[in-house]
UniProtKB/TrEMBL annotation:
Localization: Nucleus
Chain ranges of the PHD-type domain: 209-345
Lineage: Eukaryota, Metazoa, Ecdysozoa, Arthropoda, Chelicerata
Protein name: DNA (cytosine-5-)-methyltransferase
Protein family (similarity comment): Belongs to the class I-like SAM-binding methyltransferase superfamily. C5-methyltransferase family.
């Protein structure tokens, strides 16, 4: 049986392997720049659409290999479900092109391993006529890991159809390309820096003045260098100013982290596009091609692309980048915190409560989950009169009942709580809750937003309705303290809606200041001292070097098992089990007896602030327990927020901590 002879010349529609930075070889398809709304690829480079990831990157030809001829060398087993799903998509496209019949993904993989054998001779002949045989255009570098693929540039120039639309682009790929094109079109219309605007930015009168030294960086917006914009504040990460529009965009995107653990937008200009990622396993920062080229120069940018690994400005010695125009701020973490700082200080509520006779606190917890609020109040030793909860996940309810037997009263689904139910449990002193964040998170491409009632976004309005109803029923003599939480990587429009209804801006608190997990969250509330009780980032020294024992992963691993941490801190744990795998699914956070290993659930419970086996209830699987933890709050954060209630307004137990 003969092998199907694939094209030996790169063209739009070619199925390829691509190598981006330190990431593994990943399957993709060459696409037309017009279809994605981006500039034409640079000389000797191509736009690659990544299967499984559904994003695009510009790659030089040396980082591209034909999928079929390099399959045996570049395909690796057991490297992760995401990678395998991407490979399956590429194989499905090839099978469709060459009329190969299959019943399952296993058949496709077997077909590929055997060298893409054609089902019959006629099929081979037909496809040979369909594809041009240009043997010799591709030279594979003879190294054990296939580092380079060289395509003569003179042959690329002679290819007339390289930038034309190809009928070989699958419909599902075209659908994603249309989405990417729409995003880039909107960004362009909003005067956002794309690769096209980078050249204009480079020629901006303000940038020219900055390079000459006649204008200070602090007086211009270093994100856009707009001629008609003013710097209203200072960039939190780098020396220089920032305009209002770019500041709001930065607040929206700075904590938007993709499934690979890296920022989905540039940390300088806050825009998506082709990104250069820091290769440090403890760093999530990404930088767009334009900003690197603008600040460091084209030659340095290409040097960075060649470097493996490349460590960004925050991960190398501070003095190493002082000759660049771009300089980081040594106190960037404090400045990032101030970017989300509340302008209102709630001291009135404290004085009102202080004048009352102390009595046990009455709490209503919406979206209660595994009762982090109850556990935090107990840790503070605050005496609870009644703890009411709304939760619909039976597994979460069972966990709470096991750990807090007889002390939680459930009042049902939040969407079915009417005024009569609220009136029956009033007065309420403290209302807490955080609605599901999936439909509000910027990194979720299928998010439905805050207004789509087919999703979970509108549940915020149920929280708001209950909050206002309690305030009315409580009366003036019983002020209500409230706390609402949601994801930090929220779209600006959704955050503005929540802030408008609650009549306050949120503050940012990251659990990495109290534990070994990076978990940035936004909090709205009138808890006394919520924005004053502590500078969260004072515990972190310059360069993000973690030194506090509570912030190191190794301190949470069970002793006596030869378990060692491979990272200082883990990234945000979500309901996706792959969120526990670090560095683009390449690195497990623990080594045990010299072998890579996952975090044990008991260790994960400790990181969240719970005692070991807190979620070990009934016949819950490990995945379900991890999922419940991924939906919960970080208890050390909640303890620090509610700490001001300890001993001031409500009675406490003796020496709780």
């Amino acid at each position: 049986m003969a092998s199907i002879r694939m094209e030996q010349k790169l063209s739009i529609g070619s199925i390829v392997w691509g190598k981006l930075g330190s990431f593994k070889w990943w399957p993709g398809i060459l696409v037309n720049y017009i279809d994605i709304g981006l500039p034409k690829a640079k000389f000797g480079s191509f736009w690659v659409f990544w299967f499984g990831d559904y994003k695009v990157s510009q790659l030089p030809t040396k980082n591209i290999a034909f999928f079929t001829s390099s399959f045996k060398q570049l395909y690796k087993k057991n490297v992760g479900k995401c990678h395998q799903a991407a490979v399956n998509e590429a194989l499905e496209v090839l099978a469709t092109r060459f009329d190969y019949c299959y019943k399952s993904p296993k058949d496709l993989l077997l077909w590929a391993v055997k060298g893409f054998k054609a089902p019959d001779t006629s099929s081979v002949q037909g496809n040979e006529n369909k594809k041009t045989d240009l043997t010799g255009y591709l030279t594979l570098k003879a190294t054990y890991n296939i580092k380079e693929v060289i395509v003569p540039l003179i042959d690329i120039m002679k290819t007339p159809d390289l930038q034309k639309h190809s009928p070989d682009i699958p419909p599902f790929v075209l659908k994603h390309l249309q989405r990417i094109q729409n995003i880039n079109k909107k960004l362009s219309e909003a005067h956002i820096s794309t690769p096209v605007i980078a050249e204009k930015k480079n020629l901006s009168p303000k940038f020219v003045q900055v390079k000459k030294g006649s204008l200070k960086l602090q007086d211009v917006c270093i994100a856009c260098f707009g001629s008609n914009v003013e710097a209203v504040s200072q960039h939190p990460l780098f020396e220089g100013g920032i305009c209002l529009k770019c500041q709001e965009l930065l607040k929206e995107t700075i904590f938007a982290v993709g499934s690979d653990g890296k920022n989905v937008c540039c940390v300088i200009c806050a825009h998506p596009g082709s990104l250069i990622l820091c290769d440090s396993i403890n760093c999530s920062r990404s930088y767009c091609f334009d900003c690197i080229g603008l600040w460091l120069g084209e030659e340095t940018r290409f040097e960075i692309l060649e470097r493996n690994p490349w460590l960004c400005f925050f991960c190398v010695h501070q003095n190493s980048n002082q000759h660049y125009l771009l300089k980081i701020k040594l106190d960037w973490e404090k400045r990032l915190q101030f970017l989300f700082q509340q302008s209102t200080v709630f001291v009135d509520e404290l004085s009102k409560l202080s004048n009352q006779i102390k009595r046990p606190i009455r709490v209503l917890s919406l979206f209660d989950g595994i009762s982090t609020g109850k556990a935090a109040l107990d840790s503070l030793g605050i005496v609870i009169d009644q703890y009411y909860a709304s939760e619909i996940d039976e597994s979460a309810i069972n966990v709470s009942k096991l750990n807090h037997p007889g002390s939680i009263i459930y009042i049902g689904d939040i969407t079915k709580i009417d005024e009569s139910k609220i009136e029956a449990i009033c007065p309420i002193d403290l209302l807490i809750g955080g609605s599901p964040c999936n439909d509000l998170s910027l990194v979720n491409p299928k998010r439905k937003g805050i207004y789509d009632f087919s999703g979970t976004g509108p549940l915020f309005f149920d929280y708001f309705h209950i909050c206002k109803t309690i305030e009315r029923l409580n009366g003036r003599n019983n002020p209500l303290l409230f706390l609402f939480e949601n994801v930090a990587s929220m779209r600006l429009v959704d955050k503005s809606v929540i802030s408008s209804f609650l009549m306050m801006e949120p503050i940012l608190i990251d659990a990495k200041s109290f534990s070994a997990q990076s978990r940035p969250r936004l909090f709205w509330g009138n808890i006394p001292g919520i924005s004053l009780y502590r500078d969260f980032y004072d515990v972190l020294p310059i360069n993000n070097v973690v030194k506090e024992p509570c912030q190191l992963l190794g301190g949470y691993l069970l002793e006596g098992f030869e378990r060692k941490a491979t990272v200082a801190q883990i990234r945000t744990v979500t309901t996706n089990k792959n969120s526990l795998i670090q560095d683009n699914y390449n690195l497990l956070p623990v080594e045990m007896n010299g072998e890579p290993d996952q975090l044990w659930i008991t260790e994960l419970e400790k990181i969240f602030g719970f005692p070991p086996h807190y979620t070990d209830t009934g016949n819950l699987t490990l995945n379900k327990r991890r999922e419940l933890l991924g939906k919960s709050w970080s208890m050390p954060v909640i303890i620090n927020i509610l700490r001001s209630l300890h001993g001031q307004q409500f009675p406490v137990y003796e020496a709780p901590f």
